[in-house]
Amino acid sequence: MRTLVDKIWDNHVVKNIDEKEDVLYIDRHFIHEVTSPQAFDVLKNKGVPVFRPAQTTATVDHNIPTLEQEKPIEQKESRIQVEQLRKNCNDFGIPLFDIGNEKQGIVHVIGPELGLTLPGSTIVCGDSHTSTHGAFGTIAFGIGTSEVATVLATQCVIQSRPKTMKIEVTGELGSYVTPKDVILYIIAQLGTAGATEYFVEYAGDTFEKMSMEGRMTVCNMSIEMGARGGLIAPDQVTFDYLSTTKYWNEHPEEFEVNLKNWKQLKTDDGASYDRVISYKASDISPMVTFGTNPGTGIAIDSVIQTNEGGLEYMQFHKGQSLEGTPVDYVFLGSCTNGRIEDLRLFSSLVKGRKKAPNVTAWIVPGSKKVELQCIEEGIDVILKEAGFELRQPGCSACLAMNPDKVPAGKLCVSTSNRNFEGRQGVGARTVLASPATAAMAAITGKIISVKEFELLGYGKN
Q1: CA-CA distance, 297 to 310, in Å (whole number)?
Q2: Which of 161, 267, 416, 461 could in theory staple to 334 by disulfide, Cβ–Cβ 3.0 to 4.6 A?
Q3: What top-level class would CATH report for the domain 289-455?
Q4: What are the tens digits of pLDDT across the range 253-279?
Q5: ∠ CA 353-403-396 to the nearest 5 degrees?
Q6: 459 burial class (0-12, 13-18, 19+ CB within 10 angstroms)?
Q7: For residue 45, what is the enclosing H or E element?
């Protein structure tokens, strides 16, 4: 009797080093401009080629601007990193989805979109939020720069076998309670170290009813509770999503062959985990964070019950409710919430309304495909009429590595994954939230609960 994690792991072990460590074969390696330059230097210095370039996929995302991408990148360091990735990919024969390419976008958004994220596979990237791909039933995790070099050279990486944890959530989610709220709630319950050394399998009918976009949001933030990764067993929702991707749509016979194997990817009945935790969906409300780590989540209409977690930096205090707090910035995007479903939800709430005058809003699609979908569906028009602007794809204000930085002291309601000090800019204050909560804040100019939002006469369009 084996868990899904055990099955995938065992299928990829090339060699047992000892009782704890294995040489693990990697099916797909994603790279971007930030963590790959030093790795390529290692290969150049040793005269080693990339072992299997066709299994490596490159894109630009972290450093690029989200406006006027057709112009040269102004920030020198960012420009150098992007140019270096172009050179390295050309020198080593690696496909690169560069600025303007129809396949370009945030690395953890384009992988699933392109049909490169496959159930039962192992996936790595020099980026901590590689766990996103676990939504498809994969073992996906971030690696360091030295490991990036190892994977480029060998298509393998040495890893210690993880412990397994099952997190089960059952029941129906309430109004405006999104997958982002579910994972913020779980992290708040477990803490930022609660899943350290574990690979988490999310189970229960709450996850089964989620879309693939929602599942990716959940798995994306597994790392924020210390987990090495998180995954959800593939099911018909997974298969339907994959069948619509361009590659598998063009290769239906190959898809059917793979489908037979994908349907076997599930934990055996009676298999044991190292730890099992259960929650009820009815206990989860729209969430916001009050501190400087993702574990400081509370329901919007509740109060802060601690003096810890970065309250002084955030300019909050114990006993305070965040409801009614004025907002300076709103950011919709990132590998957590930059998919088409997220932009659809945001636009449905702002349609026919106007952005609050005190709010600066950045609406950033996670990929070129999402950007084009927004234009095809008229989302860009809805946003424009409400006072918003649809920007170009990139990591944007998730992290302060590009022009989209939140000024010191300003408060940003962000749909990204981290609220560390300075994460969005020196001195910037970040409140993590869902696309729905971000939309409500952008309209009203403050953090607002669903109940208050509806009392103001907004409700659903």
Answers
A1: 12
A2: 416
A3: alpha beta
A4: 899 999 999 999 999 999 999 999 999
A5: 60
A6: exposed
A7: helix 37-46
